[in-house]
Specification:
A two-stranded antiparallel sheet has the order 1-2. The chain contains 8 helices and 2 strands. The protein is about 55% helix and about 5% strand. The longest helix has 22 residues. It has about 190 residues and is mainly α. The protein has 2 domains: about 120 residues; about 55 residues. About 15% of the residues have low confidence. It starts with a helix and ends with a helix.
């Protein structure tokens, strides 16, 4: 399944970050270009699973973060308003995006390279430090839950993600890894 997750990450990587609605539109367009029908439930489940496994991550942008411009229109996050009437671009104003995660090796599915020309979605730059901190906080919370549940498979997966995250963003996960290591050594 990681090939599918890497393909999802590749689609997101074309844009830097996408809202959930924009990702859904991109996947609909991609299915059309590939001559297949979109199974919205299956795609939604794949996106959710990719987020669960850290191939994709949700990013809540701060009020000061801005998307990169597309033409002369920009969408800002936080308390700022979007300078566009497009509802998908306006939804970016709430500040929640999907970005490529630390476990991903983004790959482009067939015909994906055309998506930036088809969709009216701006290229977004994500603050890797802020995103890394958000992912580290999520990782720490999930590690605590997995420890409480005694879920050894999840503990091992999260342990691997600590190394991925260290290499992917300028954050430190040694404390999380040490907690996981202590439990896994028992």
């Amino acid at each position: 399944m990681s090939r599918t997750y890497d393909d999802l990450a590749g689609v997101v990587d074309l844009f830097g970050a996408l809202t959930h609605a924009e990702l859904e539109s991109a996947l609909d367009e991609l299915a059309y270009k590939q001559g297949s029908e979109t199974d919205a439930e299956a795609l939604s489940a794949a996106v959710d699973a990719a987020i669960d496994e850290y191939y994709l991550v949700e990013y809540v942008a701060d009020a000061g973060d801005r998307t990169v411009e597309a033409g002369d229109q920009t969408a800002e996050t936080g308390d700022q308003t979007a300078e566009t009437s497009d509802p998908e671009r306006r939804s970016a104003a709430d500040g929640t995006f999907v970005a490529v995660g630390p476990a991903a090796f983004p790959s482009l599915p067939q015909n994906a390279e055309d998506l930036p020309h088809i969709l009216d979605v701006p290229r977004r730059e994500v603050d890797r430090r802020a995103l890394g901190e958000q992912v580290r906080e999520r990782l720490a919370a999930e590690a605590d839950a997995a420890i409480d549940d005694g879920d050894e498979a999840r503990l091992n997966r999260l342990y691997d993600v600590t190394y991925d995250l260290d290499a992917w963003a300028p954050v430190e996960t040694a404390a999380v890894r040490d907690r996981l290591d202590a439990v896994l050594q028992d």
